[in-house]
Write a structure and sequence with these properties.
Rossmann fold; 188 residues; alpha/beta; 8 helices
Length: 188
Amino acid sequence: MDILFDKITTETLNSLELTQKEFWNVSRTTGLLLNTFVKMKNSQSVLEIGTSNGYSGLWISKALKQTGGRLTTIEYFDKRQSIAMENFKKCGVFDIVRTLQGSAIKVLAALSPDEKFDFVFIDANKSEYVQYFELIKPHLTGNALIAADNITTHPEKVQTFIDAVDADDDFQYTILDIPGGLLIAYKE
């Protein structure tokens, strides 16, 4: 069952789904799952690596409106970030979204040591997932969740990431067989 959003958000999500291949958006199933995880965890601080046109960020930020949390989202391409910012404004979530532009590795390396996240969604350069993982670990709260997209569609590019999560005793993980494949890792 889909979530009931306001008319503008529903229309925006529907229109963004038409550009799924062009902007590499997650599936509706994944968006709904991200929304559910944020609400279940009562997340307060979410990090998204790979904003694109804001599709997944809308699913996350709509849940954060309910939990009282905030989204920090990183996008490499300025044009995509501009489109996402317009979508966030149109759907009434811009006030809880912080957009950062640039290389995710550089942006993550520059985060303040005090910045913490209780949920992280990774959907950017697949071959850099393992580097994102290493850079975000110091910023995770206890009981944090990491969700990473495209695990089954890009296995050769994400294998080092899967191996790193598997080798880290602080994490328990599973891979969900949904469109794109989604790795969910729980930090103990």
